[in-house]
């Protein structure tokens, strides 16, 4: 049976987190999120963790070689022998090339890269739809969870709402553009290696996962 060595891609709001949880539950592979392994390496005071901490403490970006080292240490652990799900790495071509090299050295080469594609306009609508009641803090969404009566909070009857800075259109648009710029070279890189699988993320969550399952079941057999 082929090991499922996977990498998950998608713009903010594409539903990556939800699909990652389902993949991990269904296929019993460890979820390797860069945020989690950074925190673990720093807490455990590994060599790479201490190096990363020194940069973070100075308010600097952690350089690729340290990030690559932390990912390599994690991939070398025994629980990844039958597969893993990488999330948040690689972020650039240099990291992708480093991952390719460590995959060969550790016998953990990628089996597939799954990109959940949602057009940026839909994502803008998804990500800017959240609003909060100023009085009681209840959270709503214009598309997915609107107030029962327009302009009135279901919980406290308040009429004043606000948006967090992160949810404002200009901020979200900028974040999407930055991510799009970052992801495009990676998508090209993995397409050239015949590893890329595009999934339509504009469907209901269950349908997205059905498409993911088709790909993973074909790879495993």
TrEMBL record:
Signal peptide bounds: none
Gene3D superfamilies attached to this UniProt entry: P-loop containing nucleotide triphosphate hydrolases
Enzyme class: transferase
Localisation per UniProt entry: Cytoplasm
GO molecular function: AMP kinase activity; ATP binding; zinc ion binding
Domain (Adenylate kinase active site lid): residue spans on this chain: 130-166
Region (NMP): 33-62
The UniProt record lists the keyword Kinase: yes
Annotated Zn(2+) binding sites: 133, 136, 153, 156
Subunit details: Monomer.
Record-given protein name: Adenylate kinase
Gene source species: Liquorilactobacillus ghanensis DSM 18630
Top-level taxonomy: Bacteria, Bacillati, Bacillota, Bacilli, Lactobacillales
